[in-house]
Amino acid sequence: MIAIAGYTGILIALASSALLVLRAAQSFLSGRSAASVRGPVMGLLGGAAVAFLLLIVGLLTDDFSIAYIADNHATTTPFVFKIATAWAALEGSILLWGLVLAGFVYGVLRTVRDGDALGLGALAVLGVVSVFFFGVMATFANPFAVCTELARGACADTSWHPFVGTSAPLEGPGPNPLLQNHFLMAVHPPVLYVGYVGFTVPFAFAISTLALGTATDWLERTRRWTLIAWVFLTAGITLGALWSYAVLGWGGYWAWDPVENASFLPWLAGTAFIHSSVVERRRGMLRAWNLLLVIATFSLTILGTFLTRSGVVASVHSFTQSAIGPALLGFLLFTMIGSLALFAGRAHLIAQSPRLESLASREGLFLLNNLLLTLFTVVVLVGTLGPLFLEAFNGQVVTVGRPFFDQLAAPISYMLLLAIGLGPITPYRTARASVVWERIRTPLQVALGAGALAVLAGRREATVVVVLMLATFIIAVILRHLLVQARRLDARLLPAIGRVVGRDPGFWGGQIAHIGVAVLAVGITVSAALSVQGSVTLTRGESESFAGFEVTYLGQFNRLEGNKSILGAEVELTRNGGVIALLEPSLNSFPNQVQAIATPAIHTDLSGDVYITLTRIDENAIALDLWRYPFEFLIWMGGFIIVAGGVWSLAMRKTGRTTSPVRERASG
Amino acid sequence: MTRQSAAGSRPWADRTGRILSAAVTVLLALIVIGGLIDGPPDDGDRIETLTAVIKCPQCRGESIKESSAVTARTMRQIVAEQVADGRSDDEILDYFRGLYGDQAILDPGLSATTVALWAVPALVLAGGIGTLIWLSKERARQ
Description:
The structure holds two protein chains of two kinds. By secondary structure, chain A is α+β, with helices and mostly antiparallel strands. Chain A is 61% helix and 13% strand. Chain A has 20 helices and twelve strands. In chain A, the strands form three sheets. In chain A, strands 4, 5, 6, 7, 8 and 9 form a six-stranded antiparallel sheet that branches. In chain A, a hairpin with a 2-residue loop joins strand 5 (549-561) and strand 6. Chain A starts with a helix and ends in a 13-residue tail after the last helix. In chain B, helix 3 (43-53) packs across helix 4 (70-84). Chain B is flat. Chain B has three domains: 2-36; 43-104, Cytochrome C biogenesis protein (Helicase, Ruva Protein, domain 3); 109-142. The chains are: A alpha+beta, B mainly alpha.
């Protein structure tokens, strides 16, 4: 019953998407009213919502006749993860994707007026993307395919036809243990999807602009959508890194894993786009480049989806291999060839001759930012896809790992940090050296002071000292700028700061994000350069010292939490004789997997983290891997300050007055 | 405003302030530079660098420095022994290449097969810098 209704929902969404394409294209061409597209959009949203809700109902009512549920669900799974199972595997994740997309289409519809060719064209493009995703769900990746044959308690054969005889197992295996071991895994995918899917909106408006062949206000109209997508993508990546750190127990948070890269690529391109769109809105430059960047960002989100779901790369994220891989690859090629052909044919109608007055200007630094972010994107792209291509064409297996990425990412990041420091205080058009010098002199001294303090405190790692100085410089420049602006207002300092920051949320939201980047950079560098790693074997009551701490094995414990059975060790952490924490690293096992998951125990204080995983436990002894990561929390703090900056821009923009696009804010 | 007029009436104090400020800046810079001038890498540094580029054969994309697998631990030991024996970085890496093939080294290095990995970013960088120069020249001609 659920299978039939759910599949019907998907078919309704698919048919509505197709109708949306037709009607929106018709209105786009004839300049007619926007009323005719409302029905299809509601059908799309309704069909997607019904399908998604029914999948959740199916999970909560243990409807094992649906193959997806039979393969990924268990009656014993805790409630939160029962719901999260709806996006824990391939078909469900595509359904969530479709639902988020439908939500965005509805949001766009609300901004489209009669005769609004730009908006109607964008809706047609969004319709095409929906046709693809719901088409995939209706064929290769049907979340409501029914189970027709059982073998060893699992679903051996499925059918999309909901009326065939079904056979349902009595109990399923439950979701992947790695996914149900931590609450973050329920949150990370939906957040990331909102980010991924959100970039479809500016892409659709860009294609519509190209189809119109004239300059439009597409950037102004999609600014909010782009920011929403970017905020969620940033949050999704940060949560993913946090999950990797807190759950996977390998002692790290980022491995340049192909699928991590797949989420980082659209983030890099999207970040470049956010910056270059400022230059277009302010100065009318870079029109063609912005169109190209948003096409690249969208293509990279599809590439990311392809990499995660096709099985071409081995990764912790990979879903099982299926026919959806070729479909996604086809759609990726269609998107890229189609948009680039349109771009090649129309961009000259939209682009303007460059009016760069001087490279030494805010525009110049924005260009540098774009060059660096594009270069970063290319490095990550080459490092991720390079080995695949080399293997396919030369048959040569090449390993591209952390050293490759680190070698190239580090110098690019240093340059980016420097540009972040200089950008916000460099005037538009032409920057006089004396003006810039006046604004950076004190911050430069503060940064040198921070570097000198680090050196005097005994730090000799060049990366640590350099990044610390760059980060201090960034933050000092921003704070100085804030204070100078606030002092000009005739008010007490704190209210004046509030007014300055609230008056121009776009600019100051960006500066909050920049402070987040500075904090993140320090966290990444310091935690890596000053990390200490060790492993110990302890018998009961025995102590061993590690990185200035004493680690004592007190005893073991065994308990059951829902369907998760936890075998762990009680480990006491002391420093200078004082007890700091009682940590419980454990091996968690789930009924559906023999191999237990080593779940780390992490102690965090102001000096950083002590991270312990249990590698072996028996009657008398345990073996532990230990890591000391100084100031690791700065990484998460930085990530969330970046998100906060985006949220500030978004939230304040709604209520605040819109500022004139030509006013020069920071140069005054 | 007030600061400027005060300094204006006392040019001597202003100049002293500036000289002092410059002196402090130079001093701080010297401390930083002095601290970062590095001697040749010691054995510990070399082991760190080497273990970071040798792949743990049992793991997925992890180096033997990061991995906690038993094999990785043994391999770290081997690296430390070979460093202590005075073998060069290349000799040590070649030793592991001999055991596990080229993919034992995470750093793809520069070779006939991997040249594209380095060439593509280099070309993009060159193209980008070229475009920036062209944009500013374009302006000069107008």
